[in-house]
Amino acid sequence: MSDTPLLKIEDLTAHHGAVCALDSVSIDVPERGLCAVLGANGAGKSTLLRTLTGLHPATSGRVTLDGEDITRLPAERAVTKGLAHVPEGGGVIVELTVEENLRLGGLWRARHDPETLAEVLDLFPPLVERRGKPAATLSGGERQMLAIGRALMARPRVLLLDEPSLGLAPMVTEQIFTLLGDLRDRTGLTVVLVEQNAAGALGVTDHGFVLNQGRVAAEGPSDDLLSDDRTRHAYLGF
Ligand code: ATP
């Protein structure tokens, strides 16, 4: 893992009207890093991901990807630069088949890319036999896999996930978290995992950042945060 961060967030500030949702947030994510962004409801986690991907405007601050300033790129340019965002709930289109959903994720690329489709399906065996079925027939965990697979179709350098555990049973959540670790190990992808399930997310990530009222209230190696009683009690609820 290189020491130079692949994704560098410096003093990022963003507002919703008068509400300051991100207040001078600085986060470094190294290449092949798997990092958790944690915090309670309203801490600013979703705003962070939406600001990184150009879906929400930054008030001030800077975001660089591999040294290139991407702070004010519109969302469609952010994805071509290598940021893929899996929104809360996944955003799978249930009327379309599994394969159609995956192909949508590849529309950013110049041409249909059967090699990437085959590679992505290879990462998610449960989706292979369902590729011709409507996404509505998938379980919650399979839909989350499909949402991740669709993001991977853009061949991102950084995958940003917003609460993939939402609405999933604990066992399925564990499978999805394990899958993220495997994905990083197999593909060399860099992953930012936004979660309210702090214990689960810290169990699979290398490094964690805790947001509280739009500020980074704590950060450190995930194992250290897991054993830090003060941080766990004050911000993580376990
Ligand atoms: P959750 O886990 O509930 O999604 P979060 O940590 O992702 O919470 P954000 O959704 O980023 O937090 O919200 C950060 C702050 O911005 C909160 O105070 C929230 O009320 C406010 N906020 C978020 N979206 C809007 C909006 N569309 N309009 C006004 N305020 C908003």
TrEMBL record:
Span of domain ABC transporter: 7-238
Gene3D superfamilies in the record: P-loop containing nucleotide triphosphate hydrolases (3.40.50.300)
GO molecular function, one term: ATP binding
Keywords: Amino-acid transport, ATP-binding, Nucleotide-binding, Transport
Coiled-coil spans in chain: none
Keyword DNA-binding in record: no
CDD domains: ABC_TM1139_LivF_branched
Database matches in Pfam families: ABC_tran (PF00005)
Family: Belongs to the ABC transporter superfamily.
Name listed for the protein in its UniProt record: ABC transporter ATP-binding protein
Species of the source: Nocardiopsis coralli
